[in-house]
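Checklist before submission:
- one chain only
- standard amino acids only
- sequence pasted in full

Submission:
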Amino acid sequence: MNNEKIKDLFAIKYNLKNMELYYTRSSFAGNTLSEPRSKKDKEAGVLSKTTKTHVHNWLIENLFEKKKEISSKHIEKGNTCEDESIELYSEFLEGVVYDKNEKHFRNEFIQGTPDIIDYENKLVIDIKTSWDMFTFPYFDTQIENKLYYWQLQCYMHLLDFKKAKLVYCLVNTPTSLINREIKYQSIIKGIDITPELSEEIKNNLTFDNLDIKDRIKEFEIEREDITLIYNRVGQIRNYIKSLGYEQEISK
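Returned file contents:
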């Protein structure tokens, strides 16, 4: 769908109007670096399909006051167990007690809410709660998920810190999610729920039997330049303007 068709679609029911200036979320920043498939589009500075889809969703959220929901068992556990993961990490460090950060940060291009801010050591920490041992990066030696890497880069720039940590935690899965997983596995395997199946899944999703050093995985990185992300935000703002929307800096 080209820009004119998109503009006409929104203009059918809504007058083109001013809206808040676009700032990319730190969690999405890595996606903005995706490039279009064709060399021609890349050289012309055309946004990738991934980035355009994100922008279209952002426009819909702002125009219609709706929010796109993204959910999975992994996300649900991460959200539910975040505080428990922070407590586990504090226990792992011995003598350090971290609390969840609630403060939101924004500069001219990016925004985000880091999980933990260690002001004393000028360190920002992002916590990831793994679903099970098989999604826990036990043997990894570097951050494999580049979205997480760029998320931390953005946090460091927002806070003017030079160090960041990505920390994976293995905490027990809530009973409600374990019971849901038992039902799901029985359905996809076409078998009845048995004590053996229930015990197997419970064992896979709880980790009290493990040493704490096997339940924490840390990756430390240093700050690097993110001009590419800033430039891409500028491109996104120009794309939004090409659709007929003037953006204003919110106060």
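Reviewer check: Confidence is low (pLDDT under 50) at residues 10-16.
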